[in-house]
Amino acid sequence: MTAPRAAAKLRPMTPQAITRDTISEEALLILKNLKENGRLGRSNKLADVKVALEPSVSLDFDSYFFFLRKFHYIAMDREAQLKVTDQGERVVEGDARDKFSGEVGDFFAEQLVPGDDTQSGPAPAPPVPEVAPMPPQVTQDIVLEQSETPMAPPPHPPPPPRGSRKSAPAAGDEPMVPQIPQVTPSGHTSPRIEAPAASPPAAPAAPTPAPIPQGATSAKGTDIDLRYVKFDPIGSGPLGTVFKGRHNALGLDISVKELKDIFGYFSFLQRGEVIKRLKKELCAQAQVRHPGVVAVLDQNTDVARPYFVMELLKSSLREKLDQGAGKGISIPLAIRYFLQLAYALRAAHALGLTHHNLKPENVLFDAHGNAKVGDFGLARVIEVDQSKGMPQVFVGTGGMGYMSPELLARAKDVGVAADVYGLGILLYEMTTGQIPGRRSALPSEVNKEVPSKLDPIFDKMTQDRKEQRYPDFDAVLDDIYGAFSEGEYLKRGDLIMWSEPPKA
Q: Which of 265, 296, 446, 499 has CB 3.0 to 4.6 Å from 432, enough for a Cys bridge?
């Protein structure tokens, strides 16, 4: 269920309005909401709290989360549930406010604008803000809010403030202010309205974007660093959201994957490690230039919400399987997709890149109906590393049925055989519409249209012991072409790419 969102106008707060007292009030607002949610038995899951409160704070919600967790005002369990600590309780009750305000000044020093409240001496205790009630039910499938249009940078821009998501609106845009329901002492709700702030100084004119091609979904989008425009979301997962976008200079349709929620699973001190892993995996996938691998075109991990840019693809294997209503897809298509994916993974393995998270959601299709593998290595970005203090985090179980035993056991020597296993499970699901269990019937026993010659290949790909599986995709392809030596499903060396959508 998607929580209703009021059609409130949104006015970004200008830098002149971001003071220590402002941030102290907003951090205290978060603590009060967490305490009230706990008292009423409502969800305090990080993602839910973030969706509910981010519109009512001046900076990116992650910045407040990192501050409150670093100074031990809140704690988070393994299920990402937040709790106010004893130290946080004392601040909510009115104690240690000077200390709290001082820590705010230290942590947010780069974002704060000097004013009367940042002079020498402790700041007065901030007034207790009203509690903004959370929606009764907020789920992960809420459409994520798009960021505001950034102000064009000067010729030599300074580094952006840490954690800030507020920026000047584009020329001609009307600034807007969120109306956040507040609980008054009488128990009635009233909108919280931010007073209009002074207009920011004029910025140099931004380059004129390329014209919007005909057939675009919308002429209105959100600029991200002037090179790209971000439109409506087209898919989401536990770590982020994929948006349709456009490359401004080329007028090219693209997709932008924004990893908005990835840092919510880690403490402030671990952010650098996550960024390091993310950049490594994105750069590795970008090196694989193969028609069966989703092309990574660009990335920016040095922002509050890291994103990467990919070619725009039309649909996923999950959608095709859902359309089959549990019966799979036609056998010729299934085998064609299987071969395309096998060659794609073979090319990635040749460059030392493994996937380890194969599932229908990560198999996408281009405009001609060709299968492509995406999201290489994102599972490794959040995997456990006790030597670096990385917690054991599970961000969804949608891919567990495709994971090899050694991946589930978090073995250290996981290699290409894990991808062989994952593609074997996908082969079974494409041909039967089901995910096999430990004692499942062979594919041809479930679907009489499946050639029995596929059974031993599937069986060898999905052996529990990796030593009993195919060692690589060269061996898999040898057996496929050997089993269908009459060319029933292509011969070695045949082209397996379509130049127009398949009719089958």
A: 446
